[in-house]
Design a protein that fits this description.
369 residues; 9-stranded mixed beta sheet; binds pyridoxal-5'-phosphate; alpha/beta; single chain
């Protein structure tokens, strides 16, 4: 019996007050609304949705995305991919370079179990992947990653990317499938027009590369790009075949400031452990259960209570005064500023329906082995 099953038996139907805190909560109605809204956008095609699992690292949630129409799942790590495949997902893109030999061996094991594609941006890595795949007797799908302006991974657009695609297409053990280019420098721009304009510039770099490759006889079957902030601009850009949006499912405060198309479904539940003064209360959720690189989380639904600071295992709340009742044992829900890095701190999430636990899902794609 998995631990998730134990927790399900223990807490299904119970109110949030009975959960061990800090606990990761997902509001089912909001989650489903987000999944349906994104699925509806892509239902008309021709571009398809390949949601990024880095945002939830949860194969149960990924399966719901596929059931709602997603073509497959994007992953950042081999471990995420392993969890998704074990959970029943059959079409995987690892939108990242796999260079470490240990992870490469695990990647090869996965290649026999699903339609697997991995990003590459250097000939040396392609040759390493080719040697390993040939020795293992498997075929690895390859997307050449193009730097579309983010300045993270990715080879330059145009002739350098096409030359790399030629190498990928020729090496044994590899099957070149197309290109990817993630416009991560654009997805968080608050002004929608500016965000979309910059997204189109990035997609132009990507699709010009696709066109150049076609002139050289290399026809890309997959052209993968896009995030939550750009799902419409990338999703309607001619030549892009799939969009890798991830944050839309659970959302967070940082992305809510960029777009309001999706609702914040994710909260961290804290228990008040102390009320030392009328204007201060302390909760048990700290930096070890919520990330802060995009700012402090915010209190949801407790008027007169604001989060002032976090230490490792403490939340420090400012309370408007003695008239605000907040006593040890009371619960506070916090909206994370960044959902992806917050989820990764928790082994399980509690799916909440009308304030009660409806289900418990393992965050099975987390690191740790
Ligand atoms: C390669 C890649 N694709 C897509 C995304 C989209 O994510 P989001 O939905 O958070 O914009 C990310 C986010 O980090 C990413 O790294």
């Amino acid at each position: 019996v998995s631990k998730a099953e134990d927790l399900r038996q223990q807490f299904a139907g119970k109110p949030r007050e009975l959960l061990p805190t800090p606990a990761l909560l997902v509001d089912e109605r909001r989650l489903m609304g987000n999944l349906q809204k994104m699925a509806a956008f892509f239902a008309a095609g021709p571009t398809r949705l390949r949601p990024h699992a880095k945002s939830h690292k949860c194969s149960t949630l990924a399966r719901l995305q596929v059931e709602a129409g997603a073509i497959g799942i994007t992953c950042a790590t081999v471990q995420e991919a392993e969890a998704m495949v074990a959970g029943g997902v059959r079409d995987i893109l690892i939108a990242n370079q796999v260079v470490n030999d240990y992870w490469l061996q695990r990647l090869l094991t996965l290649a026999g179990k699903c339609d697997l594609k991995v990003a590459a941006d250097a000939e040396k890595n392609l040759r390493q992947l080719s040697r390993a795949a040939s020795a293992a007797g498997v075929e690895l799908g390859i997307l050449v990653e193009v730097n579309v302006g983010m300045g993270r991974c990715g080879i330059d657009a145009g002739p350098p990317a096409c030359a790399l695609a030629t190498v990928a297409a020729q090496l044994p053990g590899l099957r070149w499938r197309g290109f990817m280019g993630y416009e991560g420098h654009v997805v968080g721009i608050h002004d929608r027009q500016e965000r979309f304009a910059q997204c189109r510039q990035a997609m132009t770099l990507l699709t010009q590369t696709v066109d150049l490759a076609r002139e050289q006889g290399l026809v890309a079957e997959i052209v993968s790009a896009g995030g939550t902030g750009t799902y419409e601009a990338a999703g309607r850009f001619p030549g892009v075949t799939e969009v890798q949006a991830g944050s839309y499912a659970l959302m967070d405060l940082a992305y809510r400031r960029v777009l309001t198309d999706f609702e914040c479904a994710l909260t961290v539940l804290a228990t008040v452990i102390s009320r030392p003064t009328p204007d201060r209360a302390i909760g048990d959720a700290g930096l070890k259960s919520m990330s802060t690189e995009f700012g402090l989380p915010e209190v949801a639904g407790n008027p007169g209570v604001a989060l002032r600071d976090l230490s490792e295992e403490h939340s420090i709340f400012s309370v408007a005064g003695a008239h605000v009742t907040l006593a040890p044992g009371d619960k506070v829900e916090l909206l994370p500023s960044h959902g992806c890095t917050t989820v990764a701190l928790h082994p399980y999430l509690y799916l909440m329906r009308d304030g009660r636990v409806h289900d418990v899902w393992a965050v099975d794609g987390r690191g740790g082995g």
